[in-house]
């Protein structure tokens, strides 16, 4: 096998390094991108990429790909498991319509030229399960973000205004769960759900604790910034899926105002589409995207991702248990509730997005509005898989952002309600190819704090996608079908220097790394020991049995802070 | 008409979506029809003897087909006559035509069938006319007649059509039923759980879930789901 590659004559777009559609060669050795001189005299495999687009492998910073939620979703949706994607032969059997099995997730990402994906909500007590499942996903690099926003420890330290202990607890929790960063889901609201309720504003008191969502969020941002974790606080806002919630979203975004970080944002607000509704009921609901876009564009320390719905099948699964119950009552679909002891909860509800349904069409329009109105340096392309639909339709979103003509065609197929309730029909913006590449590669890599990902500079991981698209010739406004088709299946997907996909077909299997962040060196772990011992009286597991040992992971990659 | 005979006793199950459409092809083509034998894809001719008599859209399955699944799946017209017993999923998603089974039928007979007719001269197993797991609607039209007995789960999520069982049946009759008719001449177990609409008529003894309201000549429920299904004595 060759351990060096020469990708010849490709047209490279590499936003991080300022390369805008230039014909150049890329050299790879031992899984990294290197200078030409490094491969001299080596047994080099040459890939002819003439007239083809060469970019970094895609980075999905927010998807639900492993853990108890997706697995419960699979269990309760046997009808999702009838689409056969791969028959066991050289590769593993892979099935799934939108909810995919673990191998199918890896294979489908790879076929599309994506090489990293982050599980966006790991129930801490379910860490072992999550990692077992991540270890069953081939092809890609991955990591998981444990949820902190409803954990009793967090409430306790926020209540006591003890940022030092909060930092220590975060470091302890990331180490125990082999987590990558701090996810917050409906802070305080899921705890209120334990009593059948929810929180309705940033200043509602959490039942039994003298804290509010506002205090939880700001304390966590402060702690994460003092710890200097790779990734910022990653928040699923309060009041998700409620008409009128865009105001809460804006208030939440503004909480980042007092913080700064030279390398990245201090707050990432996720799947904002679900939190961008104006109006006061589902009858009067309209888009709040424009106001949110103004707020995000005016700040230099906040990023978002879209949470774009795709028409067709989806499964709503979030750590926002009260929202899931509301959705179940709204649609009458099946519902499953998960409870993670004193850490939070989750719910799962099957869903179909129908173009003729006014609310679904509006959701679809809002996602695109966010993608179009927000600076390309602040918005990442996601579907919040599988909440908004399959990640395999990212090429659809990419093409839509680049072509008004395509959007006009699609607008004709959806409910006319979007014409009055959103501004999408009036938006003329067409993103450039470089911008969309940035939104799917270099931007999510920067937001996650992974300098070796999302670009093709020397020293970067050799995660490369080659598409059958010539950026020097393509007219992205008019040839949207060609754009969609090109991004749907990569000509080549190269992961850590190995060719995994050729002409859209799997040719090799690879087991990616699992990143986790070790911040224990920055805190005094003894400081929270008595608290841990005290709280673990209420857990169903003993403290010493809690968590995941590094040696249990297939390919752990520890990032020491 | 084509006649298909198993060459041997099958060690593992065969999955063969045999429909009367096959009868319109010539014998050599029929022999090349792809079926699964366990995990292997093989040609029909490797497992079965195929002979052709005339051009009518009729399939005669001569022998024991109790290990052959998916017979008549998605068929829309013509006739299948099985001289022995059939395996699971016979007549699944069927949209028209007729299947006559002279022996017994296995699970999932006529699952999610939309139209057409199935007659079983012997017994049927479980899940007759049901929805596949995860789907919202079972049998929605057509008729299934079972001369003998049937197992558990009859007409789950059924929305239309008729199932008639001349003998006895097991538990969970018409669970989550939303339309159509189930007739059981003999005895059966629990009837009508979460039934929303439709009618169940029973000749013998049966057990009704407690959430049904007694009216003049019938019980109406399941009130648990605000249902207006009707259960009555034949």
Helix-strand blueprint:
The complex is a heterodimer of chains A (561) and B (234).
Chain A: E1 4-14, E2 19-29, E3 32-34, E4 44-48, E5 53-56, E6 58-63, H1 68-76, E7 84-86, E8 94-95, H2 102-111, E9 114-122, H3 127-134, E10 141-146, H4 152-159, H5 163-177, E11 183-185, H6 189-193, H7 213-227, E12 233-236, H8 246-254, E13 267-269, E14 277-278, E15 286-287, H9 289-298, E16 302-305, E17 312-318, H10 321-331, E18 336-340, E19 344-353, H11 358-373, E20 379-380, H12 394-402, H13 404-411, H14 417-421, H15 433-440, H16 442-448, E21 464-467, H17 480-488, E22 492-495, E23 498-502, E24 505-506, E25 514-518, H18 529-535, E26 556-560
Parallel strand pairs in A: 1-4, 1-5, 6-9, 9-10, 10-25, 11-12, 12-13, 13-16, 16-20, 25-26
Antiparallel strand pairs in A: 1-2, 2-3, 5-21, 7-8, 14-15, 17-19, 18-19, 21-22, 22-23, 23-24
Helix pairs in contact in A: 4-5, 4-7, 5-7, 8-9, 9-11, 12-17
Chain B: E1 2-6, E2 14-15, H1 27-31, E3 34-37, E4 40-43, H2 44-47, E5 48-52, E6 58-61, E7 68-69, E8 79-82, E9 98-101, E10 117-120, E11 140-146, E12 160-165, E13 178-184, E14 190-191, E15 197-202, E16 207-208, E17 212-214, E18 219-221, E19 229-233
Parallel strand pairs in B: 1-6, 2-7, 6-8, 8-9, 9-10, 10-11, 11-12, 12-13, 13-15, 14-16, 15-19
Antiparallel strand pairs in B: 1-5, 2-3, 3-4, 17-18, 18-19
What does it look like?
The complex is a heterodimer of chains A (561) and B (234). Chain A is α/β, with parallel strands linked by helices. Helices cover 30% and strands 23% of the residues of chain A. In chain A, strands 1, 2, 3, 4, 5, 21, 22, 23 and 24 form a nine-stranded mixed sheet that branches. In chain A, strands 6-9-10-25-26 form a five-stranded parallel sheet. In chain A, β23 and β24 (505-506) form a beta hairpin. In chain A, α12 (394-402) runs antiparallel to α17 (480-488). Chain B is mainly beta and 234 residues long. Chain B has one domain. Chain B has two helices and 19 strands. In chain B, the strands form three sheets. A 13-stranded mixed sheet of chain B has the order 5-1-6-8-9-10-11-12-13-15-19-18-17. A four-stranded mixed sheet of chain B has the order 4-3-2-7. A two-stranded parallel ribbon of chain B has the order 14-16. The mean pLDDT of chain B is 96. Chain A binds chain B through residues 76-80, and chain B through 132-135.
